[in-house]
Amino acid sequence: MTAAGRWRRETVRMQAAELFEQKIKPSEVARRLRVSLKSVYQWQQLWRGGGVQALVSRGPSGSRCRLSPRCLEKLAGYLEQGPAAHGWVEDQVWTAARVATLIGRKFHVSYSVSGATRLMHRLGFSPQVPARRVAERDEQAVTAWKEATWAEVKEPGRPAGVTSASRTKQASPGGRPKDARGAGAAEHPW
């Protein structure tokens, strides 16, 4: 949630506390503040137990970052150096798995791939998926093959005509008796 979203949520809770003090019913509080009745009941319970202070935000939820601000600065510097500087020479792509490995090597802290992804976003980076291509790939040869050879070997599309909705059995116009129901459906009257 963004800082603006947290601020709005806290503002709404403070407005709810004012309405609770005026003894306004929860359904009316929910209507006025345009929030769910369930939220209002939860806030009212907190308010009864600890007053307005119980409704104050405790900051963003989730687990605390396991890297100090100094380590985060160092990590950002490592990411700016690029993957090759840290042993990944096959391409210049930071994947979340590589970043998790880098964090483990440099800071001796274990991060999951999804945790490394969130940390990268927090630092202003985005994980990338490397293209699975052979290093020796000849783009001109591939293009020439597609234009010349592929057109010859490509199978033609499905022929127009009788089709079947069955996944297991193809339609066969010859297999249906002439007097069967729907036998003339394939024949057009015009």
Please characterize this protein's 3D structure.
By secondary structure, the protein is an all-alpha fold. It is built from seven helices and no strands. Helix 1 packs antiparallel against helix 2 and helix 5 packs across helix 6 (113-122). The mean pLDDT is 81.
Number of strands: 0
Could you say which structural class the secondary elements and strand pairing correspond to? mainly alpha
Instruction: Determine the mean pLDDT.
Output: 81
Strand content is under 5%
The number of distinct helices, counting runs of at least 4 residues, comes to: 7
Rg computed from alpha carbons, rounded to a whole number of angstroms: 32 Å
Shape estimate: flat
List SSEs in N-to-C order: HHHHHHH
- Which oligomeric form is depicted? single chain
Q: What is the end-to-end distance?
A: 64 Å
Poorly predicted runs are: none
The major beta sheet can be summarized as: none
Helix residue percentage: 40-55%
Question: What brief labels describe this structure?
Answer:
190 residues; mainly alpha; 7 helices; 0% strand; flat
What's the short version?
The chain is 48% helix and 0% strand. With 190 residues, the chain is mainly alpha-helical. The two termini are 64 Å apart.
Q: In terms of topology, how is this protein built?
A:
Elements: H1 3-21, H2 26-33, H3 37-50, H4 69-81, H5 96-107, H6 113-122, H7 139-153
Helix pairs in contact: 1-2, 1-3, 2-3, 5-6
